Amino acid sequence: MTAFRSALDDWVIDGKPVDSVLEPTMQQLLTCHRLPPAQFHARIGRYEVDFWFPDTPIVLECDGWEHHGRERRTFESDRVRNAELTGLGFITVRFTYRQLTRQPAATAKRIRDALARWAPHLELAKVRRDR
Question: Is residue 108 part of a domain?
């Protein structure tokens, strides 16, 4: 039962089910690189975003090739979604599986840079630098 429970815990963040392996990978990256906590599956406008840093305009999206890269419909809807979120005052920073798994330090730096630019009120000085 413990192994089963542990396996289920890998597929839940903040009590919400994950959509893919990318989301737990992003959560682990945020934790390991000591980035500020992000709200998982936050509602912004008519969308549920992968991660949002509360009190900032920054949204993080985790894009797998299978879902976001192969179908024209998904490709088009991602652009509409980005435009609508931008119209609401948010910026969307997108990451792929390869970026999350093969370049975690560079990915964390990109997130940290976005936070420094768009959310300077967050206490990033306490965050370990990956430079």
Answer: yes
Contacts of residue 116, defined as CB under 8 A and 6 or more positions apart, other chains included, come to 124
**What whole-number distance in Å separates Cα of residue 128 and Cα of residue 3?**
33
Amino acid of residue 15: G
CATH number at residue 103: 3.40.960.10
Q: Is the pTM of this model over 0.85?
A: no
CA 43 – CA 85 distance, rounded (Å)? 11
Is residue 32 over pLDDT 50? yes
Residue 24 located in a structural domain: yes
CA separation for the pair 83, 87 (Å, rounded): 6
The verdict on residue 115 lying in a domain is yes
Contacts of 114 (CB under 8 A, 6+ apart): 58, 91, 93
Confidence of residue 13 (pLDDT cuts 50, 70, 90): low
